[in-house]
Design goal:
The complex is a heterodimer of chains A (795) and B (702). Chain A contains 20 helices and 28 strands. In chain A, a hairpin with a 4-residue loop joins strand 21 and strand 22. In chain A, helix 3 runs antiparallel to helix 7, helix 7 packs across helix 8 and helix 9 runs parallel beside helix 11. In chain B, strands 13, 14, 15, 20, 23, 24, 33, 36 and 37 form a 9-stranded mixed β-sheet that branches. A 6-stranded mixed β-sheet of chain B has the order 3-2-1-4-11-12. In chain B, 55% of the residues are buried. The chains are: A alpha+beta (795), B alpha/beta (702). Chains A and B meet through helix 3, helix 7, helix 8, helix 13 and strand 14 of A and helix 4, helix 8 and helix 13 of B.
């Protein structure tokens, strides 16, 4: 208990939160739902709260494993009954167990950015449905209102209260991508929707099943919205089956162990997780960390670039998050508060509680959120949300900002930092046509699910490694897709050199080329933001990964070449044999016919640290293993090879110093000149891997260049103010790696590389709108264990 | 190979199964008599251990080895030689020829390679997740211009010169095996076949294999991995099979040695030379073969076969007499497309290590101390394991490890567990009981989870418990998983169950044909496909010496609802197929689908389709007569008591111990009790009863 009080006293966001809460009505109608500290529940609904405080440790371990397995069984039941490829193969769903008052104690290993919705939805239901129509044994609620808690209306939530001894004991919850559920576009992603009224109908919580009886009226009303009603029926049935099977298992547990023990174990799961998160947070200095990611061409006619921001302020064992500085909500690219929050919970859970069996409630205890409404990440009704663009950027932002935070911690904490990786950005495309069986098919191809993992502080990212927040999805085989969609792959490969350069390299993404095959027309509909506006940023100077691209060539002689036995098997061969490819608008739609080529490149992972620090032997291995282009070796890494393909050590050394010198020559000099810190306290210098160092001097904390130890100002200031800056259009840095944002956006986009003016070391690489101020990566106010007074005295 | 008419004097079959630590040999006489022998595995040359085990069996029978060999109908071998080469990564240097544009398939791993085969609770620790290293690196993957489409139509002809150059390049790069795997070769094999001919012509000394010869299902990633693995162990297996065949001949065995395969049953040495990859997992699968055989004899249609060894707990299910199968599986974190009996595993075994996590919680496994260093009581390691906990509680007798041939030190077990107890603030026995309870509960969780995804109710199943640890833990696991009955099958063979399975295996050939047919359909094409497959099967089995009367053909179609992913196998009768039969097939499909996936779970409106055809051709072998035993066997009574800690009683209880060596009978026992066997102990927990049935199996009522 005392620990909890301590956590709240560290909550520097309390006042900000109170202010934001008092300014608007956060009830899930105009403004998204934010649960109050004390839920207002009808007293007639009795909650089963008794629990064992002093659980026998063996029983607890047995129950912990049981909860985990019961929840996996829940997932399996949904998969089994549904049989939908999107549920079974890509695992676009999650299941969870919640306490009587709506705290999520355990989630499944499927899609992770769903893990922060269940508690919002159950708490809203407790507050708004406990009186009318009441919450009873045998009820199942359905809801897909993004302003209460889901990513978009296509992700439908079904959940069920479990009663014991006449009292509400716990909740079982599932959230599934159900396919078409209405709206102006087939599949229910509605990029052209001006507002939510053109999207699928959002349903606030209502009873789909009432006291064990499925309500046909409600069921039919929902299914009536869909272009594929039988499929939706099956999806909903799979969720009902999953909830009911899980309730049986929970009841068996209650029979076997008694309610006090089970509830005791549930509470202990939360407190255990919370304790681990607390211990980890306390090893990180107090301070704040920021990140900004941009989105271009967010609507059908849009040619602007939009900014999305997340900031975390951490004190002791508590984190407060802000989205202030995020641009206003915009058409169908917007996301709700719930999605911004769920993204943060998903990233914080992954980084701080990766070994706690997916227990969000233990993480949330250490988080306060202060949203600014009317923005892309906290849209106000009736903003449209189905494209998920801002939601996915929220996930990237959460991971980036928390990565920067953990980077200031000790090694075991720091290792989980992870630069952005690709999957769902820039977006996806739908292939549609009549296949050779005469069946019309329209499918989101899953090539992009090959994904990529960004670089870490101590290792490279993972080439085509999937998504960190979507652990068990699969992209399927080329043969699977050719069997169902009328196209033929020219190639499907890891895109060499697409991962961001760095001391540690970002994972490569996937590239595919197709021709329409055995169909008259293959239509290609792109649902995306502009990849030219790079979202795949790195950490601590690491360069962004390739952000993706959609390209085409028309009326080529590919079929004549096929009959001559020629086949282009790479993008280079396509371009050299068939002519140059041209970029397609992120909102484009194409009708491909014989001889047309369609190329999709998906995003790759961001790099970590200055590429000049990469071991030359590792670069050599990258070339040998076909992971990078030979030309990238010199360009990014300053690694030269001799005539036999061996390392030219002397040449590499001088190439690297030449690049450093060149950086120093080219950069704009900093506004501020370095303050010379006093003598360093013995053994107090802290090295933040490859980027900046932290120097504890007699009187204060200073940033230093990790390479030459030059001071970069006090840690309460932005080190970028003390660094030189090279500002360029990313497309000019590397025209293949970074497509030109000017193709589809009018705003200027820049890459800013921050350089130590003493040694030429690359400290930070940002992507920004030209007129935006530099992001303050990090500020540190005190080190762990250091009394605040010490710092104050010093400063 | 197997010919009844010529086998009057032959009255026994030999099964040999080689594990990491021991090589097991089971000799089964037609009469039903079983002789077993366990000898140490000889890792440097496993064929030595193979013959040692057979020799040891002959000694036990007190007949010369040559006499045993002359009387032998067949030797069936479950080998791990190929598996070991894959695990220790010391197989061939393989080169891959694949379709141009698709040379990265085995690197991309369909985007799921980073997490494939990882336990779900380790997935979130992202910075500790890696893809496995591919068996063939980029510079030995050569892309060949050629292209077939999904209908089997040639889009781009095979560039034979490229093939020739590629083979030479790979040969120069030191490759001793070549895997050839092209897109859609399963629909049109001409390019793969021609490439193979070229390779064999250019470099006859290399081991060459084709994807479509090994795998007949859609999915280039899994098919290519399977082809590569086959090539990887090709040379090793050729040498091994030669050594076994030569050794057998020298010892007077005149017939071909057979090899257990992952799809159930056995295959000839010639098959094993072509498709050595099919020996992978053949050990556990042979255990299922044995279970199925016994289950049929004792009329138990629904069985969960639970095998607990040193490192893993493996469960498989037999439902309505048929083992469940799977079409792909993850091996060493790589995905293989081979039809095999379905075995689920978790890291829970006698060697599983007990440890305390960052939150101070007691955990057991998945890390195992294995056989070396082994449990603390073996005297080499310090970690407390499940076996140590069993020793501390008095369940395992330190003097009875391996017939008392292995000495273990109970004090080391106590010390190891006491260290954990001190950290947890619990007593020694409490901690030991806690370790066992946690591992038992994990195993029960696996049984329950397995049943949910496969759509059956575990309460309708009996549990067959075998392997070293199965009989020790099954009573508790079954109780927790809600099973009614545990069967320790033929106790004197239970610890060598896979070898017993090998000895009783039939010869099995699997033929598959991928082709999509939408229903309704008049059946003409279906007839044609099965007729072709059957012709091939009959030729092959007759060549192997089986008369028509001993050949059984099982036709199956794989079916699914077109818009859903779950496919199920539907048996098809061996008659001419017309429209009415096709309708029956569709009705059978809906029935099975609902049974497995729930009422109304099929999306009928999206259509029904057949996605593939298979024929399981079985050459029936002569089996031992497991008959009801007469009553002349010696009846054993509990001989002594020992102090055993029972968590149900929260303390030590004087527990009767009944020791059986071979073919004795026992009177019904009331738990708590222990039945000491030569290689393991059957634990009858308080409240449970045990009795021996007429066949000699021990049945425990849970």
């Amino acid at each position: 208990m005392s620990e909890d009080i301590k956590s709240r006293s560290d909550d520097v966001g309390l006042e900000d939160e109170a202010k934001i809460l008092s300014e608007h009505k956060w009830d899930g109608k105009t403004y998204s739902y934010i649960p109050p500290r004390e839920l207002k529940i009808d007293p007639r609904l009795q909650l089963h709260e008794d629990h064992d405080e002093d659980l026998d440790p063996i029983t607890y371990q047995v129950l912990r494993s049981r909860f985990w397995n019961i929840n996996l069984d829940h997932s399996d039941t949904v998969k089994r009954v549904s049989g939908s490829p999107v549920i079974v193969y890509t695992e676009d769903f999650n299941t969870s167990l919640l306490t009587e008052n709506g705290d999520t104690i355990i989630c499944g290993p499927s899609i992770q950015y769903f893990t922060g919705y269940g508690d919002l939805v159950v708490k809203w239901t407790l507050e708004n449905r406990s009186t009318n129509p009441g919450i009873h044994e045998g009820d199942i609620f359905i809801q897909n209102d993004p302003y209460i808690g889901t990513a978009h209306q296509i992700d439908v939530e079904l959940y069920m209260p479990v009663f014991w001894e006449g009292k509400l004991f716990c909740w079982i919850f599932s959230n599934c991508h159900v396919g078409d559920i209405g709206g102006i576009n087939p599949g229910s992603f509605c990029p052209e929707a001006p507002d939510i009224y053109s999207e699928p109908v959002p349903m606030p919580p209502m009873k789909l099943v009432e006291r064990e009886e499925v309500r046909d009226d409600i069921f039919e009303m929902i299914v009536r919205q869909s272009r594929t009603p039988e499929n939706l029926t099956l999806q909903l049935r799979s969720q009902i089956a999953g909830l009911r099977a899980t309730r049986t298992r929970i009841r068996e547990l209650l029979e076997e162990h008694g309610a006090r023990v089970i509830k005791g174990a549930m509470r202990k799961l939360i407190s255990d997780c919370s304790r681990v998160v607390r211990e980890r947070l306390r090893e990180i200095p107090d301070g704040e960390w920021n990140e900004a990611i941009y989105m271009g061409a967010a609507g059908p006619e849009d040619r602007s670039i939009h900014r999305l921001v997340t900031r975390v302020v951490k004190k002791g064992d508590h984190m407060t998050f802000y989205n202030e500085g995020t641009d206003p909500q915009f058409q169908a690219a917007s996301g709700t508060y719930g999605s911004w929050r769920s993204a943060l919970i998903c990233a914080a859970g992954t980084m701080l509680a990766y070994d706690q069996m997916y227990c969000p409630a233990g993480v949330i205890e250490h988080m306060t959120l202060v949203p600014t409404p009317g923005t892309l990440t906290c849209a106000v009704h009736p903003a449209a949300v189905t494209t998920l663009s801002a939601t996915i950027v929220s996930v990237y932002l959460a991971s980036q900002v928390l990565s920067k935070m953990v980077l200031t911690g000790p090694e075991e904490i720091r290792r989980v930092a992870n630069a952005t990786g690709g999957v769902a950005l820039p977006g996806w495309w739908v292939a549609a046509g009549t296949n050779r069986n005469g069946r019309y098919v329209a499918d989101v191809t899953a090539d992009q699910v090959m994904g990529s993992i960004g670089a870490f502080p101590y290792r490279d990212g993972v080439d085509t490694g999937g998504a960190w927040w979507w652990p068990r999805s699969t992209a399927g085989n080329a043969e699977d897709w050719e069997q169902s969609v009328p196209f033929l792959y020219l190639y499907r490969r890891e895109q060499k050199g697409s991962g961001g350069a760095g001391r540690w390299r970002g994972g490569n993404g996937v590239e595919v080329g197709f021709v329409p095959h055995k169909t008259e027309v293959l239509s290609a509909q792109v649902v995306s933001v502009d990849p030219g506006v790079v979202t795949t940023i790195g950490l601590m100077g690491g360069l962004p990964g390739h952000p993706g691209n959609f390209l085409t060539a028309s009326k080529t002689d590919i079929w004549a070449r096929f009959s001559r036995g020629e086949m282009p098997g790479t993008r280079e061969e396509v371009e050299s044999q068939l002519g140059e490819l041209r970029r397609i608008s992120p909102k484009g739609s194409l009708e491909l016919t014989d001889g047309d080529i369609w190329v999709v490149e998906n995003s790759a992972g961001g790099g970590f640290g200055d590429p000049l620090l990469r071991e030359p032997e590792t670069v050599l291995e990258d070339i040998k293993e076909d992971r990078i282009q030979a030309s990238q070796s010199e360009k990014y890494y300053g690694v030269l090879l001799d005539g036999n393909g061996n390392l030219d050590e002397a040449g590499t050394k001088s190439a690297r110093s030449a690049i450093r010198q060149d950086r120093m020559d080219k950069c704009r000099l900093p506004d501020k000149s370095p303050v010379r810190p006093g003598a360093a306290t013995a053994n107090a210098s802290r090295f933040l891997t490859e980027g900046v160092g932290l120097l504890v001097a007699e009187e204060a904390l200073f940033w230093t260049c990790a390479h030459c130890q030059r001071s970069l100002g006090p840690t309460t200031e932005n080190y970028k103010d003390y660094l030189g800056c090279i500002e360029t259009n990313p497309h000019d840095v590397d025209p293949v790696m970074y497509p030109d944002s000017h193709d589809f956006c009018d705003d200027d986009l820049v890459m800013r590389q921050y350089i130590c003016t003493d040694c030429g070391h690359l400290v930070a690489t940002d992507i920004a709108r030209a007129h935006d101020k530099p992001v303050v990566d990090m500020k540190i106010t005190s080190l762990p264990g250091q009394q605040e007074e010490t710092i104050t005295r010093g400063a | 190979m197997e010919n009844r008419r010529a086998s009057e004097k032959r009255d026994l079959a030999i099964g040999v199964d080689i594990g990491g630590t021991f090589t097991d040999c089971v000799v089964v006489f037609d009469s039903g008599t079983i002789i077993t022998a366990k000898t140490p595995t000889t890792p440097s040359d496993r064929s030595i251990g193979f013959f040692n085990a057979i020799e040891r069996a002959a000694e036990k029978l007190e007949i010369p080895l040559s006499a045993l060999m002359v009387r032998c109908r067949r030797i069936v071998h479950g080998t791990t030689t190929g598996t070991n080469a894959l695990v220790s990564r010391d197989g061939s240097r393989v080169g891959l020829l694949t379709t141009k544009g698709h040379g990265h398939a085995t690197y991309m791993m369909r985007g799921s390679g980073r997490t494939a085969g990882l336990p779900a609770d380790e997935l979130l620790d992202i910075s500790n997740t890696y893809k496995p290293t591919p068996l063939v690196p980029h510079d030995r993957i050569l892309e060949i211009p050629e292209r077939i489409d999904a209908d089997g139509d040639e889009i781009v002809r095979l560039d034979e010169n490229s093939v020739r150059e590629a083979v030479l390049t790979l040969k120069d790069a030191g490759c001793d095996a070549i895997a050839i795997s092209y897109l859609w070769s399963i629909k049109n094999e001409t390019h793969e076949r021609r490439s193979r001919e070229i390779a064999e012509e250019v470099a006859p000394e290399l081991f060459v294999c084709n994807g479509a010869d090994l795998v007949r299902s859609v999915g280039e990633y899994e098919r290519t991995v399977t082809t590569i693995m086959n090539a990887y162990i090709g040379q090793v297996m050729l040498r091994y099979i030669d050594a076994i065949e030569k050794g057998a001949r020298e010892r007077g065995y005149k017939r071909g040695v057979l090899f257990a395969q992952c799809g159930g049953g056995a295959m000839s040495a010639a098959e094993a030379r072509k498709a050595p990859i099919r020996t992978v997992q053949s050990g556990p699968v042979a255990g299922i073969v044995a279970s199925r055989y016994l289950a049929e004899k004792i009329n138990m249609p629904n069985v969960l076969a639970a095998d607990m060894g040193g490192t893993t707990f493996d469960v498989s299910a037999i439902r309505k007499g048929e083992p469940l199968e799977r079409s792909s599986s993850i091996f060493q974190r790589l995905e293989l497309a081979l039809p095999m009996y379905d075995v689920e595993s978790i890291g829970a075994g006698g060697g599983s290590i007990a440890w305390i996590d960052s939150s101070g919680r007691l955990n057991v496994g998945p890390k195992s101390a294995g056989a070396d260093p082994g449990p603390a009581c073996y005297g080499r390691g310090e970690d407390a394991t499940v076996t140590d906990a069993d020793v501390v509680m008095g369940v395992l007798d330190p003097d009875q490890f391996l017939h008392g041939r292995m000495k273990v030190d109970a004090r080391r077990s106590e010390a190891a567990i006491q260290r954990l107890a001190d950290q947890l603030g619990l007593g020694l026995q409490e901690t030991a009981a806690g370790i066992v309870r946690i591992v038992d509960s994990k195993m029960a969780d696996l049984i329950r989870r397995m049943s949910v995804m496969r759509g059956f109710d575990p309460r309708e199943f009996s549990c067959f418990a075998f392997g070293g640890g199965g009989p020790v833990h099954a009573g508790a696991v079954a109780r927790e998983a809600g099973l009614q009955q545990v069967v320790v099958p033929l106790p004197w063979a239970a610890a060598l169950w896979s070898a017993f399975g090998a000895a009783t295996a039939d010869i099995v050939h699997l033929y598959q044909h991928p082709e999509n047919i939408l229903l309704p359909n008049d059946g003409a094409r279906v007839n044609e496909i099965f007729t072709d497959l059957e012709k091939k099967a009959m030729e092959e089995l007759e060549k192997e010496g089986f008369p028509q009367t001993d050949i059984v053909l099982n036709r199956r179609v794989r079916m699914k609802y077109a818009m859903q992913v779950h496919d199920v196998d539907v048996n098809v009768r061996n008659i001419a197929i017309g429209a009415p039969e096709m309708e029956q097939i569709e009705r059978d499909f809906s029935f099975i689908y609902e049974e497995l996936f729930g009422k109304g779970a099929g999306y009928r409106e999206g259509g029904v389709e057949i996605t593939g055809f298979s024929l399981r051709a079985v050459g029936r072998t002569v089996k031992p007569e497991i008959a009801e035993r007469n009553t002349q066997y010696r009846r054993v009574e509990p001989g002594s008591t020992k102090k055993v800690y029972w968590s149900e009683k929260a303390g030590f209880v004087d527990t009767p111990v009944c020791t059986i060596e071979h073919e004795e009978t026992i009177a019904p026992l009331q738990g708590p009790a222990l039945i000491q066997l030569p290689d393991t102990v059957i634990v009858v927990r308080p409240g449970q009863t045990a009795e021996m049935d007429a066949f000699g199996n021990i049945l425990i009522k849970v």
